Input
Amino acid sequence: MLAETVVTFGAGMAFGLALAAPPGPMNAIIAQESVVRGRLAGFRAGLGAMTADVVFFILALAGMVTVVDGIPTLRAAMVTVGGVLMCYFAVGAARSADQTLTGGELAETTRSFSKTFVLALTNPYQILFWLTVGIGLLDSGRLDVFEHTPFVGDALAGVLVVETGSPVLLIGLFGGIVLWITAFPTLLVAGKDRVDALAPAVAVLSAVVLAGFGVLFLYDGLGSLL
Output
């Protein structure tokens, strides 16, 4: 029993890390906040995205997530709003390219949380995850851990299959996300002598990633609405 619990928890951790680690708009913001405003700002940015996952988890428990999927216009509107927000944050990231970690800007960490939280609530990828895999985590059964993971799903499908409906699996999932949002900002700012030199490049890269996803979301959302 203990061995099964450990395996299930480890699978949840691996799942959470696999979901949180791939490049995307959330990690772009975490990176930008980390190198410009410090490790705490990066962690709070990650915490904002994870809090949105908690909200989706609660809504999935209540059956509300399926309502969004059943109303295409509502989903399209959320995607469009997400696209606008990403483009807006891309402009902010580009403007921060001349800022450095040692130059101040550490007092704005609360904005890091709200930025990713609002953005994650309109992120169709997170919504889609909780409409599919997330709901599957709540029901008793079997789950292929990596099958629906972004970027690596096809290559790793069938490698790790676990029992679902277990609180241990869910605890491991969010534990993996916490591990990532703690470790990622820490690694980014670990080389203090290089942070100031790295900050402009990360800010520009973050702006490019956010703008790209923003345009993609706008195309998807507006295409469904019009």
Q: What stands out?
A: The chain has one domain: 2-225.
